[in-house]
């Protein structure tokens, strides 16, 4: 496995990485991800001046602070503004139906595009920024959360947005910042970012949610972990709440927990009927 590579990397190292990641996060890496693991963790070995993955795994076991770097390196963050746009149409419909909505949780904030899309939808629906709705945006990766809080993006990241959205919600950079945009301060104030690991026994989340966006997260968990996390998330939803999943996630096998409203939007089974 190490032939022609800078660092010694054996099949047992890859398996150890997979097991450690699963233990820390619940994420299962496929057999095909061995090259990705080598590529992403090599940066850590280089920085720490280590020669073998075995040495890195020993270091990881001894230094608890390395776990954050390990997780950041191996988690995938694919996102865009208004990805799966039908979900934001459902969000706007919900907000109009329940104008007293108080709390929205975006479980996988990544670099911020999803929670800012939620905030833009809230601001547009109510026609102002100062809406008394708490938007919590979390992620397991502290690196992407720092980027999300900064709210700075390359200009091409907002290429698919309308001119109205660009003008209302972004400032274009000049001089040294040419080619970049920044989310306007009023929008950034609407979102509270925090690091949360869904496998932690306790989450720093108090009170119930009206809406939970948990998109393209469960696909990285095995079935038992999916169900355990889903049950815990749905307990936080109001009876009138909705759970928004990713396009490749399906909970038809968990009808005692959630029921489908279509378009990968669900409501708590205990509620008895869909809120919309």
UniProtKB/TrEMBL annotation:
PROSITE patterns: CHER (PS50123). It comes from the Bacteria. GO terms for molecular function: protein-glutamate O-methyltransferase activity. S-adenosyl-L-methionine binds at residues 77, 79, 83, 114, 139, 197-198, 215-216. Keywords: Methyltransferase, S-adenosyl-L-methionine, Transferase. GO terms for biological process: methylation. Its EC number is 2.1.1.80. The keyword Cell inner membrane does not apply. The keyword S-adenosyl-L-methionine applies. It holds the Pfam family CheR. Residues 2-271 form the CheR-type methyltransferase domain. It is an enzyme of class 2 (transferase). It catalyses: L-glutamyl-[protein] + S-adenosyl-L-methionine = [protein]-L-glutamate 5-O-methyl ester + S-adenosyl-L-homocysteine. InterPro entries: Bact_Chemotaxis_MeTrfase, Chemotaxis_MeTrfase_CheR, CheR_C, CheR_MeTrfase, CheR_N, CheR_N_sf, SAM-dependent_MTases_sf. Methylation of the membrane-bound methyl-accepting chemotaxis proteins (MCP) to form gamma-glutamyl methyl ester residues in MCP. This is Chemotaxis protein methyltransferase. It comes from Saliniradius amylolyticus.
């Amino acid at each position: 496995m190490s032939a022609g590579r800078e660092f010694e990397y054996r099949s047992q190292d890859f398996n150890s990485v997979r097991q450690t990641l699963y233990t820390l996060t619940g994420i299962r890496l496929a057999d095909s991800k061995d090259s990705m693991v080598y590529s992403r963790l090599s940066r850590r070995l280089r920085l720490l001046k280590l020669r073998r993955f075995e040495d890195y795994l020993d270091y990881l076991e001894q230094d608890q602070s390395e776990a954050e770097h390990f997780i950041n390196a191996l988690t995938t963050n694919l996102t865009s503004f208004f990805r799966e746009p039908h979900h934001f149409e459902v969000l706007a419909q919900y907000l109009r139906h329940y104008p007293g909505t108080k709390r929205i949780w975006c479980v996988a904030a990544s670099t911020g595009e999803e929670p800012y899309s939620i905030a833009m939808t809230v601001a547009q629906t109510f026609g102002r920024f100062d809406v008394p709705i708490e938007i919590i945006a979390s992620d397991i990766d502290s690196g992407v959360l720092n980027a999300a809080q900064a709210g700075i993006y390359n200009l091409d990241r907002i290429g698919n947005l309308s001119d109205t959205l660009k003008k209302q919600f972004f400032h274009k950079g000049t001089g040294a910042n040419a080619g970049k945009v920044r989310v306007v301060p009023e929008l950034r104030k609407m979102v509270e970012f925090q690091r949360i690991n869904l496998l932690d026994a306790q989450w720093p989340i108090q009170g119930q949610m009206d809406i939970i966006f948990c998109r393209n997260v469960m696909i990285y968990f095995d079935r038992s972990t999916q169900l355990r996390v889903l049950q815990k998330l749905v307990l936080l939803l109001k009876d009138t709440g909705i759970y928004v999943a990713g396009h490749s996630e399906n909970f038809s096998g968990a009808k005692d927990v959630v029921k489908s409203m279509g378009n990968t939007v669900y409501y708590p089974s205990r509620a008895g009927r869909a809120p919309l």
